[in-house]
Amino acid sequence: MAVDTPPETTPTSGMDRWFEVTKRGSNNSREVRGGFVTFFTMAYIVILNPLIIGTAKDVNGQFVGGTTDIGKAIVMVTAATALIAGLMTIAMGAIGRFPVALAAGLGLNGYVAFTLAPHMSWADAMGLIVIEGLIIAALVLTGFRTAVFNAVPEQLKYAIGVGIGLFITIIGLVDSGIVRPGVPLISFGTNGALRGWPTFVFVFGLLLTSVLVARNTRGAILIGIIASTILAMIIEAVAHVGPHIGPDGKVANDNGWSLNVPAWPSQVVSTPDLGLLGKFDLFGGFQAIGFIAASLAVFSLMLSDFFDTMGTVFGLANEGEILNEDGTVPHFEAVLMVDSLAAAAGGAASVSSNTSYIESASGVGEGARTGIASLVTGALFLVAMFFSPLVAIVPHEAATPALVVVGFLMMTQIRHIDFTNYEIGIPAFLTLALMPFTYSITNGIGAGFITYVVIKLAKGKASEVPALLWVIAAAFVIYFASDPISQLLHIG
Asked: What is the CB neighbour count within 10 angstroms for residue 352?
């Protein structure tokens, strides 16, 4: 009978020693393969982030970067998205030595685009992102990050993730035209019916992406976007559908393409437009919406980063069986520090907070165990930076199925919430319900925290509420009551 040879544990080189390739039972070919898989699984963000950040207007009616040209904004966001994702993923590989890639966070970009930007300039909004990242970095150094994480009940953490998933979903349905204003409140499609070729493309993309995800196909979301875009281009070439909104800003065709008309660009490769780098105002947001509102916006962003990153990293380490003997993540503090600085870098480049991606699990499943995989993924993001013109051919109807599917994936966390326990069930419900229904992540988080504290207090269980959560809940009370407080104090 053959005897299994124990895996080699002695490092073969300085690179092997630094990245702990042999120690973690891997090899260079597995790491490279895992890096490629992770990239193709999450490369959709290079297309999707510009369609969120690059298409929303700020309080001044301008697109990101202070331009009035939506096409220019989209191209700039595409280049900057790929650049920051590439650099920070490489940093994660080299410093954190962990197989996780970073890019603009879905949900966080929606919060910036649809909650912050309408009330301030884009530079002001991105300044808050930079502050959020720097604060998280400071909290990593002090150890306070863990304390904040521990202060929030576990099931409320899951509710926040579910709520963000529903928020993303409603954005996708609205942008695709599936959900529209109607009587008494909203309408299904156009006057209660699905009409037009663009809607057909959305339905095709949603079904295709859903099937691919259900079949555990690597790169399912990216494949769905590409296939839907190709179909849209064929339809446009034959049917000449045209845009939904005409050059005058008015509806030209109720059943036309949203955002972009799918047509092949005059060039595929171009020099990246990095004009967004450094266009942020560190404290402008505080002047625009007030200290309390801006502080709570920063807190909301920080909260999402907290939970997403820590959950993602622990999950990947557990899946890859690379936890230390005491159950901790290797080089955990370095991983958290890179992730924190990535948030700030995303704000400094006007692409929204960058965070660790759970899609990195695809690379781990392919064999990635070390930071070498992240080096590969990061390099591929930098290459993608030179193909930004391709994003201009993607209509909303081809991209938004990804939002709906990602929303579903985030929604799966609801299984961890015990709704039979009203002490947690009611706050969790309000958290996940108010995010999509009020189009605000902040409102959902605030309502959940306040309700949790009030119910505990009413049931004589105030001692079960961590002191830090009392402070957070009080801050949200001030936030929600800011208007009557301002009137009372004759402010504004």
From this structure: 32
Angle at 327 between CA 321 and CA 329, to 5 degrees: 70
Amino acid at 209: T
Bridge partner residues of 187 (DSSP):
180
The per-residue pLDDT for range 223-253, each reduced to its tens digit, is 888 899 999 999 999 999 998 888 777 888 8
Least confident residue range of 46-55, 128-137, 386-395: 386-395
Residue 8 covered by a domain: no
Residue whose tokens read 């199925």: 401
Element at 213 (helix H, strand E): helix 197-214
3-state secondary structure of 353: coil
Read off the tokens for 301: 């962003």
In a domain, 277, yes or no: yes
Buried b (16+ CB within 10 A) or exposed e, 199-210: bebbbbbbebbb
Q: How many CA atoms lie within 13 A of 413 on its CB side?
A: 25
CB-based contacts of 216-220 (< 8 A; 24+ apart in sequence): 218/37, 218/40, 218/41, 218/362, 218/366, 219/37, 219/40, 219/41, 219/43, 219/362, 220/41, 220/405
- Number of structural domains (the chain) is 1
For the stretch 458-470, pLDDT in tens is: 999 999 999 989 9
CB-based contact 228:219 (threshold 8 Å): no
Range of the structural domain that residue 441 is part of: 14-488
CA 124-125-129 angle, to 5 degrees, is 115
Rg (CA), the chain: 23
Residue 1 lies in a domain: no
The answer to whether residues 378 and 33 touch, using CB atoms and an 8 Å cutoff, is no
**Average pLDDT estimate for 73-99:** 95
Of the pLDDT bands very low, low, confident and very high (cuts 50, 70, 90), residue 145 is low
**Cα distance between residue 391 and residue 267, in whole Å:** 12
Distance of CA 281 to the CA centre of its chain: 22
The position carrying tokens 């930071």 is: 371
Q: How far is residue 45's CA from residue 59's CA, in Å, rounded to a whole number?
A: 25
Task: Supply the angle between the helices 44-53 and 70-91 in degrees, to the nearest 10.
Answer: 130
Query: How many other β-carbons are positioned within 10 Å of the β-carbon of residue 12?
Result: 11
Nearest residue to 404 (alpha-carbon basis) of 209, 232, 201: 209
- For residue 286, which of 133, 442, 124, 440 has the smallest C-alpha distance? 124
Q: Is the peptide bond before 184 cis (omega within 30 degrees of 0)?
A: yes
